[in-house]
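To whoever is on call:

I kicked off a structure prediction for a single chain this morning and the downstream step that reads the tokens threw a length-mismatch warning. I double-checked the sequence; it's 179 residues and nothing unusual in it as far as I can see. Pasting both halves so you can look.
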Amino acid sequence: TVSIPGRYPLLLISDGASTSMVPLTKSFPGVDFVHVPQGFLTVRLPSGKEILRATSHIDCVIDAVPQEATQDGVPVVLVDPRYFHELVLRERDSHLLSNLTRKYGAKIVVVPEEEAYLNPANFILLLDNRIIMNKAPKTYQRLIDAGVKADSIIMLDEEVTDLAVLGGSIGCLAGIYTR
């Protein structure tokens, strides 16, 4: 799941998520729940070829920087470029991106194609609303240009790519250690 705060809180739930998530919709009045296609990880092989590895964890392809981390108090949604195109092309999901901006007031930032293999949408959200993200300087700049405060982003010094083979990136790794 991915939580998008704002005027109208929104929770994105992967189609591949457990059906045990369905009762949550009754537990949180005032929160909109939207089902989205399952996610994937981009894995770059030693040959340079990239493959997509399916996962129900949509936070590998879409995640939200909280409004407290932005200059204008508007949440910023970071989206993998292939997932972005999938949402645009799928009739069932084509409205989601426009709703994120119109109804929920979020800004959309698409990861540059050449940094997709770094899976930068799979970042770590800290309790103070800062994020730790993989080394992806072009993505970092797009987040800054969208209004994310520079001091709200901690970017790794080195690229982390080996975790994708294991089924996640740095956000998933942090989740394992915090459970």
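Update from on-call: the warning came from a stale cache, not from the record. Cleared it. Sanity check on the structure: The first helix runs from residue 24 to 27.
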